[in-house]
What we know:
The structure holds 2 protein chains of 2 kinds. Chain A is an all-beta fold. Chain A is built from no helices and 12 strands. The radius of gyration of chain A is 14 Å and the shape is globular.
Amino acid sequence: AQKITQTQPGMFVQEKEAVTLDCTYDTSDPSYGLFWYKQPSSGEMIFLIYQGSYDQQNATEGRYSLNFQKARKSANLVISASQLGDSAMYFCAMREGLGWDSNYQLIWGAGTKLIIKP
Amino acid sequence: DADVTQTPRNRITKTGKRIMLECSQTKGHDRMYWYRQDPGLGLRLIYYSFDVKDINKGEISDGYSVSRQAQAKFSLSLESAIPNQTALYFCATSDQGNTIYFGEGSWLTVV
């Protein structure tokens, strides 16, 4: 079974609009972490934001926020005021267990290709 | 300069050839990883190392080997490359926090 599901293979969004990228996950471990990464066309993988399963508040980093709905097992990325430079692939990933000693492996979704239109 | 440096960034090699991808980091992290990315897919873990004397297989280690020459250096080898090893390869490092730092990736094509 897919542990990380990103249902949007591609999205087109008008510049300056807000964007929501969907991510649902499946785990029976009560301790886990959720990550979002951005991959521009040049290929590098850029860390955006992290949410731990016990974190009380939704994570925010500048224009990025994570809409964490634990009961729904959903961890959507919200980008406010989109910019042309936001065009990229976006990946959701999960680590089961919170400590790096407990689990080393990130489980990745297939990604969403976001294109910002001027 | 990048904190995690991969060489080469691009390589085309022939089937059956041995190829090594090198990774060095300046972050002082103990933990290093090699991932593979195929088109339309997320990353899959090939090998990981928690320190110089600790090397472990990941999800897709068959056909690959690694060497941790020093805390800062972790290399990936394909002993006899085959076309389905054509992919984008990432080296990454982490401390005990929540962030993995990736290199810029190495595009490998096996013809």
